[in-house]
């Protein structure tokens, strides 16, 4: 009986030691639907910086096709706990010229902005 009580206490303490927040995979910073890659658009990795006191996320898109491709995208911002920051950004569209690169970006004035994820679709 003492053994079971000791195990229960250990499990309780182990549960209390977990980090609060939502598990956010920081390696999956770009979410891209398969037709985007098939169309010839190759994204880079988002980089974070600052611009006049706001967080700025920049992502490079490469088009390796001989025709221009219209791409839709939306940036999602998260705090250190992995929670969404409001307000959500509006979807945007950009045309990536043939055989070239363009940079897309998002600005966020929320001081809690810590990480970003970009959703790209056609």
TrEMBL record:
Signal peptide: 1-19
Tagged with keyword tRNA-binding: no
Record Pfam families: DUF1425
UniProt entry tagged with the keyword Nuclease: no
Entry keywords, A to Z: Signal
InterPro entries in UniProt: DUF1425 (IPR010824), YcfL-like_sf (IPR038483)
Entry superkingdom: Bacteria
Name recorded for this polypeptide: YcfL family protein
């Amino acid at each position: 009986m003492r053994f079971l009580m000791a195990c229960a206490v250990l499990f309780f303490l182990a549960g209390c030691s977990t980090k609060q927040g939502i598990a956010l995979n920081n390696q999956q910073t770009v979410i891209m639907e398969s037709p985007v890659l098939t169309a010839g658009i190759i994204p880079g990795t988002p980089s974070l910086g600052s611009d006049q006191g706001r967080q700025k996320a920049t992502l490079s898109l490469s088009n390796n096709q001989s025709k221009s491709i219209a791409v839709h995208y939306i940036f999602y911002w998260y705090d250190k706990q992995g929670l969404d920051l409001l307000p959500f950004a509006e979807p945007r569209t950009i045309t990536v010229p043939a055989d070239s690169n363009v940079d897309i970006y998002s600005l966020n004035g929320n001081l809690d902005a810590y990480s970003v994820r970009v959703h790209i679709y056609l």
